Amino acid sequence: MTPDLATLLLMRLLLEVLIAFAFWALMRRYPAMGGPGWWSLGSVVSIAGSLALMARAGGMSPQMGAMAALLMFVANAFAWVGLRSYLRWDLPLKFVGVSSAGLLVALLAASFRPQPAALLQMLYVGSGLMLSLLSLRDLVRVGLRRAPPEFRALTALSAFEALVLVSMLVWMAGHLSPLDEVAATFLMLFLMTKLVRVMIYGALVSLRMRQEAQRARQTIAERDAESRALVDNLGAGVLVLRPDRSVARINAATRRFLNWPEGGQPPATGVWPLLGPDGQRLPRHEMPFERVLATGQPVSDVVVGIHIAGEIRWALCNAYPENDVLGGLRHVVFTFVDITALRQMQQQQRALEQQLAQSQKMEALGTLAGGVAHDFNNILAAILGNADLARQDLPTGHPARQSLHEISSAARRGRELVRQILAFSRQQPLARTPVCPDAIVTETCSLLRTAIGSNVQLVKEVAPNGPAILADATRLGQVLLNLGTNAVHALQGQPGRIGFRIDTVGPDDPALPPALLEPCRRSGLGAVRIAVSDNGCGMDDATRARIFEPFFTTKRVGQGTGLGLPMVLGIVEAHGGAITVESRAGEGSTFTLYFPATADKPPAPESVPEVVFADGGTMAPIPGGEPSPPAPFSVEPPAMSDDPSAAPAHILYLDDDDTLVFLVRRLLERRGYKVTAVCDQQEAIDAVRAQPQGFQLLMTDYNMPGMSGVDVAREVLAINPELPVAVASGYISDELQAEAAAAGVTEVVFKTDAVEAFCEVVARLVSPKN
C-alpha cells in the first residue's frame, strides 16, 4: 500500500535535511575531496523542491508545480556535477545553467496550457531521464571492469533509474492520469533509489579516503626508500650509532671507507683506533662520539684518521645527537667526507712547494750566474784578444810567447766555465734543427770509447726508425758526453757497464713527464727518450736531491766545480725537455732525458759538430784521456782588395766596456779597417748624424746603461736607414731577436763568440751585397 502524497513529501523533506547535513560534514572534514559539497548543495535545493511540491499538493497554482519540477531538476543536476567533481573531471556548470533556463521556459509555458499536470510531469521525467543518461555515460567512461564495486553499483542504479524513467515516459504518453495518482508512486520509487544512491555516495567517500590513505602510505614508503637510496648513494659517509656504541645504520660510502663487506655486521665503535690530524692516537674523551655523548652538543669539522687494510684513511667528520620525544638520546649521527686524497694532495703540494722554492732559488742563482758570466766574459775576451795581439807583436822564439800562450789557455778554460754558467742559466742561444738522436749518441759513444778502459762495457740500444727531435746538436752532444763522463767516474776505475738507450714514448704513456704531456698530446707524436745508465757507485737520497744545485760536487777540490749537471739540466730544459734520475747507493744510476718528437726530417747525415765539455764541474777529465791543448788564437791579415786604391771600410764600434773598445779598435785596425770606437751611446749617434754616409757598419753592445743597443740602432737607422747594424749580447732571447728585427737590426751576435769571430762578422756585414 502506497502512502499518501503528503506523507511521502514529508519523508522526502526529512531525508533531504539529513543528507544535506551529512554531506556538509563530509565537505568540512575533507575539503579537497570533490563531490560532498555538490551533493550537500543538491540536497538543499531538493528540500526547496519538496516544499514547492507540498505547496502544489495543497492546491496552489500550476506555476508552483513548474517551480518544483525545476528545483528537482537542479537538485539532480548538482548530484551529477558532484559525481564529475568526485572524478576530478571538468564541471558542466554552463550546460546545467543553459538546461535549467530552457526547462524553466518550457515548464512555465506548460503551466499556462489546459491540463498542465500531464505536460509538467512529462517535462520533469524527460529532464530527469537526460541527467540519468549523462551520469550513466560518465560512469561507463570510468571503466566498469577495472572500477571498484561502488562504481559498478552506482552504474547499475543509474541504469535502473533510466529504465524506470523511460517506462514512465512511455506510460504517461498513453495515460494522462491526475497528478496525485501518479506522484505518490513516482515519489515512493525515487525515494528508495535516492536512499540507495546516498549510501553509494557515502561508500564512494569511504573509497576515496581509503585510496588516499593507501597513496599516502605508498608515498611515505617511496619517500623512505628514496631517502634510503639517497643516503646509500651519497658520496659522503653516514653512520648512525646507538648510545651503547653499536651501529644502527650505515650507508654504502661508509662501508667502502671502512672496508666492510655488504651485509656484514660492523664492530662496535669502542674498538676503533682513531688518529688525530697529527697522526697520533686520539684520547677517548676527544673522540667525536664521546664528545657528543658527554655534552649532548654537535661537533663539526673534526679531522680523524683510521688504520684500514694497512693504510691510514682520513675523514672530515660532523656529529650531532638525535633525541626522542622525551629529550632522551636515541642516536648519534655521523656524517663524514673521505679526505684521504686531499691529504695526499696536500702532501704533494708541500713537496711541490719545496720544489718551487728550489726552482726559484735555482732561477735566482741562474740570473745571478748569468749576470756574472756576462761581465766575466767581457774580461776574458779582453784577456784573450790582448794576449794574442801581444803574441803577434813578439818575434818567434821570444820567451814571453810561452807565457802569453799559458795566459790564453787559462782564459779559455775560464771561458768554458762561463759557457757552463750560461748553459745552466739557459742564456745561450740554441740553433735547434731536426736532428737524429741516434747519430749524436753514436758520436758520443765513439768519443767515450777512446777514453775508457777495456774493462768497461759500452752498450748502445737504439729503437729502429725513431723520430727526430728539434735540438742543437752541439749542446745535446755536450749533455750526453757529460752524462757519459759522470758514468765513467761512477765506476771508480772498476769493471762495469755504461749503457745508452734510445726509444720513444707515446703521448698517452704514463711514463711521460708531466711537463711534456700537453705539447706531446698536442703534436700527437710523443717523445724521444734517451737513457744513460751505469752500474757504478750510485747515489743516496741526500746526494740525489742536490745533484742539480750549482757548485755542488762530491769530488775532491780541484776535480770538479759542480756545474756539469746544472748545465745538463739547463740545456735539456732549454730544449723543452725533461730529465729524471733513478739511483741507489751501490746499485748505479740512470739519467733519462725526454725530448718532444718532431715530424720534420733531419738533413742529410753529416758529422756531428765537435763537442766541447768542461774540464771541471762534476765531470773531471776522463782517466787516461787528457784533452789536447787548444790551438792559439791568431788574427790573420785581411785579403788584399782587388782595387789597391779602394778606401778602407769605416766601422763604428760602441761598448760601455773601455777594455773591449780598446781591443776591438786594435783588432780591426790590424785588419785594415778604419775604426771609430766609443763608450757613450749619444756620442755614437752624433757621429752618425755628423757623417750619415761615413760608416759602413755599426757594431754595438746590447746591455748598456741608459740606452740599449736596440735603442741606439733605432736612432741611427732613423738617420741612415741603409747602414748595417749588428747588436752583440750574451743574453739572446726570442724577445730580443724580435725587438731587434722590428728595429731594423741586420744581425744579433752572441757575445761569447764575438771577439774570436768578430773579424769574420765584420767582413761579412761590410762586404758589398751581390
From TrEMBL:
Keywords: ATP-binding, Kinase, Membrane, Nucleotide-binding, Phosphoprotein, Transferase, Transmembrane, Transmembrane helix, Two-component regulatory system
Domain named Histidine kinase: residues: 371-599
InterPro entries: CheY-like_superfamily, HATPase_C_sf, HATPase_dom, His_kinase_dom, HisK_dim/P_dom, HisK_dim/P_sf, PAS, PAS-like_dom_sf
Domain of life of the native organism: Bacteria
Pfam families attached to this UniProt entry: HATPase_c, HisKA, PAS_4, Response_reg
Organism: Hydrogenophaga pseudoflava (Pseudomonas carboxydoflava)
EC number(s) per entry: 2.7.13.3
Molecular function terms from GO: ATP binding; phosphorelay sensor kinase activity
Domain Response regulatory: 650-766
Record protein name field: histidine kinase
Keyword ATP-binding carried by entry: yes
Main EC class the enzyme belongs to: transferase
Catalytic reaction equation(s): ATP + protein L-histidine = ADP + protein N-phospho-L-histidine
Record PTM 4-aspartylphosphate, positions in chain: D701
Source lineage: Bacteria, Pseudomonadati, Pseudomonadota, Betaproteobacteria, Burkholderiales
